Amino acid sequence: MESHNEDKPNKMDFLISFLVDARGGSMTGSRKSGIRMVIPPQSAEQPVRITCRQLRPDQVLHLPPLSEGEGLACRILQLTPATFLAPVLIEVPHFASITDNREISVLRSDTGKKWSVHMNTTNNDNLTSFLATSINNLVNNNNNNSTNMTTITTMQFPQYLAVISRPYQETVSLGPDGGVVRSQLEPQVQCSLPPHSISKQISLGVSVLPIKNCFTQGGAVSSIITIEQRRRKFHKPITVSIPVPAANELPPQLLCSMSGSGYRAIWEDVTLTTPLSFSHNCVQFTTVVSAQFWVFRLPACMAADTVALAEKLFRSATRVPYLARLFLFWRETEAGDEAEVELRVVLATEGERVMEDPLEERENFTSLAKSEELDIAEKSEIQISITGNLVPISSSSQKLIFRPFTESRATLSLKRKEITSMVAGKVEITTDVDRVVFTKHMVLNIGGK
User: Fold this and answer.
1) Strand partners, 161
2) Per-residue pLDDT tens for 67-113?
3) Closest by CA position to 444, among listed 424, 427, 414, 430
4) How far apart are CA 69 and CA 102, in angstroms?
5) CB of 257 within 8 A of CB of 291?
């Protein structure tokens, strides 16, 4: 006779794969992956081995088509395609910085080639009941320390899942009767569809990407407005309203990018071909194609370079923000070297930092400091400044470039200004927007002193 315990759901850790049967269970990825899969009892029709790998972008042949301003929030999940009788849950920690103007979206690929938006299941009563069972304490079963967690529910595992960070989209379902889509971030931003501008029910999205004004010679820019799905043609012109940036009555210029999702934005000045009207501090215009729109108000001396300025500003504004940590290490150099100490700076998201036998440990570095979570944009150039009685031998390694899904490193060789004084100084880490993100005072003991 089988014991009662054999009928209980499994509760285990897994490295890459696990076996699930009719008992179901809660499986958590080991090695700090933090991924958890919850499969309620009777959800698996037959025993099945589930494989779950986390892949860097260079390990995936067909990446999801991401537009500028969008980025992977964590590594891509590769799963064993499987079908279940009831909804199952996947919890995935991510490391994107999510503010009021950004959100998380999940894409899936069933074939490994074509990607589509994943929609969570809605009838999750069986899953909710199982999560609340006291016998497994499943609600609080995840040991991952990340506060950023994406919950995915589905009845069918695809081949790939991608968690995406993107500008927040206001999405409304509209039909042939038309309607209005307004942004919650900027309520004056709206898109109005007249009746019969579309022939069937569609989901129309409007996203707003705020732009920080950086013009010192006068002038201003609006937020970037994107109408999703891009390059959709309408049967009748639709009306778009964008708040006019305040700039001492300078004439507005309307820029437009017709590039589709996943393609690089190419901005064009369409002011002369698009009639503009003004109402309640907004500029209004009509279009028959969904696209990206941007209003500039620049003085005459800059107006001729509007497109070039837009390209530069757009590249900076669409860098995806991530949560990362800085790690500082040091070691004493060998006798006879010009440098007395080496300082190692490592910048990485929590999920990418190697904790088991890291490179710094193998190279005999000693840990000096670890920062709190920092908000760092991808491709940021991080400047490392040293003051006090320590000076770098060379300036060539005093910066590093932050890239997600990898550990970014820089090593500085240092020596004392005053050889008779102590080995002491201050490390200051600054981003390429002149924002100090980390400071550390240090006193190092070399030569056994």
Assistant:
1) 77, 108
2) 999 999 999 999 999 999 999 999 999 999 998 889 999 999 998 88
3) 424
4) 10
5) yes
